Amino acid sequence: MSEEHLHAPTGAYALNALPDDEREAFERHLRDCPACAQEVRELTATAARLGSAMAAPPPDGMKSQVMERIRGVRQLPPHAPPGAGGLVTVRRGRLPHLLLAACVAAAVGLGGVATWQFQEARQAERRAEQAQREGEELARVLAAADARTVSGTAKGGARATVVVSRDEDRAVFLAAGLPELPAGKTYQLWFDDGGRMRPAGLVGEDGAVVMEGGVRRATGMGVTVEPAGGSPQPTSTPLVLMPLPA
Fold first, then answer.
1. What is the residue-averaged pLDDT of the chain?
2. Burial (0-12, 13-18, 19+ Cβ within 10 Å), 56
3. What pTM was computed for the model?
4. Contact 233, 197 (CB under 8 A)
C-alpha cells in the first residue's frame, strides 16, 4: 500500500473488504493514526447498525458481487491543504462514507443487507480498537522516563532490541531481519524469571510488540521458534538470549 493512499481504506477496512496484506498494513497504520482509528470506529458502528436493521439470508454469491461492484469506487489520497508544510491531513467524511454507501447500495440491490456484514463489521471494530491499544501501550513504554535498552544479534544475523520500563512494568521487543518461518511455525518471546522461562507473546510480522505480562523480577528474555499459536514452554534452542536492564 503506497504512502499516499495509507489513509484511504477506512471504509473498506470497516467492511472487511481489504485483502489480507492490505488489511495487515492498514492495521499497523491505525496504531499511529488516531484520525483513521476514530473514522474506522464510526464507520464500523454505522455498518453494524445497518447490518442489524434487517436480518435476511444473503442470496448466493452476494459477497463476491458486492466486492466486484465496489471496485468502481475510487479511493483518493488524503487532502493536503496549501501551506501544510508536508503534513498530511485526512479529509474526513466524504470518501469513506461514499464507499460505505456504495457497499450498502449494492447489497440492497442484491436483496437486502446480509447478516455477514454485521459480524464482519464487529470483528473489524475489535481489531481496530486492539491495534490502537497496542500502539498506545508501545508508545508509553518507549517514552517512559526510566526506559532502558539492550540489543543483541540472533542466530542468522537478525538484530533484536528490548526496551524495558520498570515503572510501566512492561517491555517492548523490536527485531529486524528475522527470517520468514515455514507454515505452522512462529517466533515466541519469553521472560527469564531466574531460570524459569515465562511465555511473553508472539512476534508480529512487523517485528515490534509489547511483550505479554509484566516484567516483574525477570532478569532476561529469549526468542524461540515454536508451533503456530505458541507453547507453554520452549521446545527449541533460543535464537537469542539477552539480559534485561535493571
1. 75
2. exposed
3. 0.50
4. yes
